[in-house]
Design goal:
Elements lengths: L2 H10 L4 E2 L14 E4 L4 H8 L9 E4 L3 H15 L7 H4 L13 H15 L3 H11 L15
Helix pairs in contact: 3-5
Length: about 150
């Protein structure tokens, strides 16, 4: 399983724990994970039994995804005059059906946008939709709640 898949699975399952091989360990701090000193017994036993493909540390997510989303939304709002651009406007080079909307920066921004949108009042949603709906590219029509 790819490390990105294991990170996503750990978040979905709310375990916030990923085991990695040494070559992958540099990738994980950028995902909000940091090393802890003691691996679970099953991992220690696997290592002692000659399973060198496992890293001898457990990587634990320091903050919940929701908290990181909220922090990133706040940063984006302060940089964008208290509103978020639709995902397709933020990343105009990403085609509608690209995998980039399901992993990486496109996925994260889309998650931020939907979380932000869900917290807007109906009046604020209507104002936003009036501003952005006419500018929605044809391939993105129907993708967002107002499109």
């Amino acid at each position: 399983m790819l490390i990105a898949d294991r990170v996503a699975l750990a978040r979905v399952q709310a375990t916030h724990t990923v085991f990695a091989i040494a070559e992958e360990s540099a990738y994980l701090p950028g995902c909000g994970f940091s090393a802890v000193q003691q691996a679970p017994t099953i991992v220690r036993e696997a290592l002692a039994g000659g399973a060198p493909h496992l890293l001898s540390i457990q990587l634990a997510d320091n903050r919940a995804t929701e908290s990181r989303l909220d922090d990133d939304i706040a940063r984006e709002l302060s940089a964008q005059n208290q509103t978020l651009m639709p995902p397709w406007a933020k990343y105009p080079a990403i085609p509608r059906r690209s995998i980039a909307w399901r992993m990486g920066d496109g996925e994260w921004y889309s998650m931020m946008w939907h979380r932000w949108w869900s917290r807007l009042s109906p009046e604020a949603q209507a104002t936003y939709a009036a501003q952005w709906k006419p500018r929605t590219p044809p391939e993105f029509v129907g993708w967002l709640p107002f499109g």
